[in-house]
Amino acid sequence: MKFFHLVWAGLWRNRARTVFTLLSIAVAFLLFGLLQGVNAWFGSLAGGSHADRLIVVSRVSQIEPMPIAHLRRIEQVPGVRRATHVGAFFGTYQSRGNDVSVLATDPGALFDIYPDWQVSPDQLRAMTGTRTGALVGELLMKAYGWKVGDRVPLRTSLVKQDGSTDWHFEIVGTFSVTGSAAQANRIIVNYDYFDEARQFDKGRVFAFIVSIDDPTRSAQMCATIDALFANSSDETLTQNEAEYAQAQIRQLGDVSAMVNAIVGAVLFTLLFLTGNTMGQSVRERIPELAVLKAIGYPDTMVTALVLVESLLLCLLAAALGLAIAAALFPVTEALGVGGGALPWDVIGFGIAIAAALALASGVPPAWRVRRLTIVDALAGR
Amino acid sequence: MHVLKQISAVTLLNIKSVPMRLGASSVVVIGIAGVVGVLVSILAMVAGFTQMMTSTGRPDRAIVIGTGTSFEVLSNLSREATRTVLDAPGIKRGADGKPVASVEALAIVRGVLKDGSPANLPLRGAGPEAFVLRPELRILEGRTFEPAVRELIVGRSAQRQFRGLDVGSTITLRGSDWSVVGVFESNGDQHEAELITGAETLQSAFRRSAFQSVAVQLDSEDSFAGFSSSLTADPSLSVDVMREPDYYQQQSRSFTRVLSMVAYLVGGIMALGAVLGALNSMYTAVSGRAVEIATLRVLGFGTTPVVVSVFAEALLLAVLGGVLGACLAWLLFDGHVMSTSGAGATQLGVPLAVAPRIIALGVLWACVIGMIGASFPAVRAARAPLAAALRGH
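Structure tokens for the assembled complex are given below, as produced in the milestone run.
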């Protein structure tokens, strides 16, 4: 610790250069933090999903409807704890852009299958009593200023029996999702009413959600369910929730490959820059370092001083950059590609990269200092 | 004249000494190359995507979809509704008096990409007049599908991206076998990512009763207003009517907007880093030449030539970096086909286009970065007190 002052003084020997280098490393880590944060966010979309829940969709495509009769046969598969059917559609509230995702299902079964979706028992009962009832996620309630008892109109693309595409639902309650609040952005309505009122695709649903007793058997369960409908015109594709979520993300294109390419380019440039700066800063100080050696500093000590200086510069800058990234990260939510806080593992990874960068750019000049012969260096040769 | 001569002399001297400061100079070049490379690559994606979307459809054609969605695949139109649409004024009629229009059903099926991963593949059921309606649709190989038989034709881009779509192969959809009988091209537009069969064939195979859209050929571009208002005024219909180019551009707008924002955000942050790197290098260059510059000034050279020479050096390095970055992006990505999911569940093969306009933009960014990087060091070089600078302090 007693050498800290010496290292610190060395670092600030050329103030302008140190500030520029510090800032450019900080900028790189700002970018690193933001991009990796977005990457981690995409990864986390698959998180919060469980292997003990299976999603059954049509093998034709994930939006092709399947007959509701499948549900009876799925329920009879040994190991199935509970299953339900889901019809899904989008509605627009008032004006374009206010898109609302609606799930038409058996609410009792759904809340049983998703224990982390919280609803009060009274409101769930009210749902059974109100055919046109709706349970609304808390995020949506807040976003549109709805209250329990409101009757909300939704414009949809689904044609009703009377030819209209406007649907009305009465809010009988709200639900929240523990752990992942962002999931509480949808509306749950009664499938029975929905199916009776619509004109097309009657009796067909878009997915079945199955809760199974033993998560370790999820692969076999998927195969068993798909075998039930093999070679029919309504073949199914069953995946556990995590696999399903990952498949959804993959369809967005290879985000992580793009992020890694950019981060790679940035870090390469940076390595070049800091390596150059460190080399230059050591070159200028060769006579001083030779003096240190002449008055008895061992080679290892002088080498260490140079390395510590490089480490200090990179870590300070990385910390600054990552701190700004953490502060700015919530902005990515507005772009629809992020949200929440910058994950700690991204910060940890960033610090590790900063240390690696410091070593990569500090070792060559440190090595050079180590091999310095005092006489030549003092003579300026 | 005198000043110009001085400027050229000092600048030449300066630039000739660049190779002696290779390390610091390459920081500027490589830093700027990184910025321009990333910027140009992302903008090439935006350009490729926009190009594909704007080449889909023609202004004298319109598309009618059910209301409540902006995606054809989610729209529902009853058979009666499609008949009403076909009776509307403004639709061009063929020699036989039939409207030049196609009532279409659209299903999404799961395909397997060449790399083995699953992806969405649209299967379009087209009406009998579809080839009259879309003259850009040309069969490249094989023949077109017969009505009421499970046959389909494959878009060129879909065939390139997906497995098992060669002419003569069979694919299984909903428990029955379909033969691939032809390959079509369509001006490189979005339809090339689709499979096409007859609308009635699709309806029976997929047990559909609703259609998804009606595409019509208008009498002329000007007939759109009449056509559109007659449909929206009809109380028995709830449909959205759009010119084809408007519809396809609207599909791509949010994607290209996010991508452009990413390009400028990431490019902007990287540019900030490159400016700092350039400042660093130019300060080093100026301080390394402090004695030389002071000597020149003592000899009677003005401050302008000194300042100009610093800017010229930075500009040269910046342009070098910009061109290098743009060339890298061009070599890596021009003509490269990016597979991405498009709006409404399609898998698009978007050819990236590194257009001259994008390269010019990249080089412009490079110049601005170089200029800012040169500004402060240039001023310092011009202002350094002569006596101290000559002594090397």
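Chain A touches chain B through 59 residues (CB under 8 Å). Chain A has two domains: 4-46+253-378, 53-213. Further analysis is deferred to the final report.
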